């Protein structure tokens, strides 16, 4: 008795704790959604999920329990004498009563249904999409069925089939086991038992249901042929349509006939029908479903594959281009003339005032070293954006200064510090991409603590409570002031004034938070008051995923300064993997960047703006969650200026376009015009060239704009064949242009330019000299810059001490045509590469011969130039003799002369 009581007590306590935990999760999630004015989203999700779970549970229980009740009579008769003896011996036979059997069936059915339906709630989105489907306005080329059927309807129908089949099979197995176990016929032996056991009619009905469901499965498999990967390309091929489809139709009708036969067998009581009918279906399925298609594919299609697969390859090309948005790309010619003059430079000032010399990796290290200011501040990521500063349109590198609690001194990592005081980061750093100090370090538009910078990027609310590194919960507005920022030898403290987080205005809430986060101090701390706010789900992507798990997020949220505050902009994608005939890539075969999420770094509020309202997926989501999404027009204009074409989406499209720029079926099949992403060298290692943001004037356009670029090379070749540009500024946002180079001449690709840099004696010698002095040379990203109808190449060179230190922007390599030069600045490189255009005095009206220009130069400048030439010759002589020490001395002397010359010519 005591043992039974202890067991029951333990079970009761465990059940209470489980219910408390589940209840606390539910209630606290509701408070989190409600704080963000997303209560409707919460209820839609939970009611859909739990409604589907409860509905499937009730159906499973009712179906199983009802079928089991039909077997109760057989159990009570207990014709199996051996089983009856064992039950009597163990004292269980006394429970074999109508009431006992009914109770056992009820509890057993409920337990089985509860366990086996635990997964069904996870299909709530498929259910919602089914009932809120939006047409694509496109039909498949085989069955002429709307594409939305495959994307929205078929997944839920497949779930319904799998659930009903599971219910039917489980019920069939249990019912069959009961009939076999409790009712063996005494007139026949064991071998004949299967053909004569009682309940044959009941089992026949269940088998009829199973085969009816299997017929449904075969019908869905016919539709799913359009998602086949058997043929040359993704989607139904010749074998799928001409063989597999016909076999599936045969199986469909055969399964329906067998379903009717099993139903008739309820009256006929002929058990062999069960065996022979099942054997026939299995045989046709094996021969027609596996063997025959393989033979046709191998011996008929493969020898003349293009002839048979041509129309299906065309479908694949067309639907893949639609699914990834490649059909919207605009193709133009780029002449790539080998002419570039100073007039071209002067006509595109916005381009050359924004050449991205600072690479995100070196400048990130510089930010951490110079702008971290305290060990517990860090910069997680550096982003590229653009701002209007004064009258100029400037490209910048920007990063938020976030709090890294793990960097606090170990003894300072107390619960009070981690949860109540060190709660947020502070401010951001912004540098123009092309400016550098005399020491090779970046200049700043926004810097320091408190933040100071240009008027356009001033910060009035610099605190970062929600960021990329804010992974743990904190509690604000407690009796303790929060650390805000260091100021000299002292610290400045603050109280949170925002609306983020859930108020801890009751003991119940504190207790539930303590239970959920397994932290009793939330309940017991005397510093927490009714105005305190519990902030959780603070990491940018975690927070957005919590609200909208059906959106796929870009890897790189970026921080924006607007109206004196900090915001995060997160690109979100609508994706699907069931778009007919579309080639999968990265687990999806349909994608749109339909949503931009703006998250306030101080308040934690989120706004989901729809930027591609014609996308059927986002239209369906808007039907499901009408209060979650807003029209693009409602986004503040200051934030709209910072929208950019997402790099992750662009990279996926660029990868797909390597092959799917081809629309000719024969060329596509032969892979005759396959492109590749070019290689470049970074920090001494070859790597794929990443897409990069630049401000430039596109060919044929009159103004500079912010674009995302990706060059291409032909497969197994290093010359450039084209480049891709995604426009980011508001008027033309989302337009992607493909610029094709002429095929009758070679346009040097990034790796070919890298090789020319390696082959330059002057550059190699300088690299060697730096290496001898203990400096590590870091070659930054090579930029391919289209300028009018020409192509210019720029690569920054950084120096870093071998034992660590700040990477300094030391030189800039500029290449054009056959020439490669390396100078201290981009301007100097362009001067050396293109030659300086001399502005004549106003009173001189005739051209002056080049050899007479020296008459206009001050005497000391001419002397410095002569000295520089002499020292250079001496340096070359030292190099030829292997006198590296002498060569180094001469190079230092040259640097002093160059600096003197620069000072005199400014």
From TrEMBL:
Stored PANTHER family: UPF0182 PROTEIN SLL1060
To which species is this protein native?
Answer: Candidatus Syntrophonatronum acetioxidans
For this record, the Gene Ontology CC terms, alphabetical, are:
extracellular region; plasma membrane
Protein family? Belongs to the UPF0182 family.
Which residue ranges traverse the bilayer? 48-70, 103-125, 159-182, 194-216, 247-268, 273-296
Q: Under which name does UniProt file this protein? A: UPF0182 protein D5R97_04615
**Disulfide bond keyword on record:** no
Q: Where in the cell is it found?
A: Cell membrane
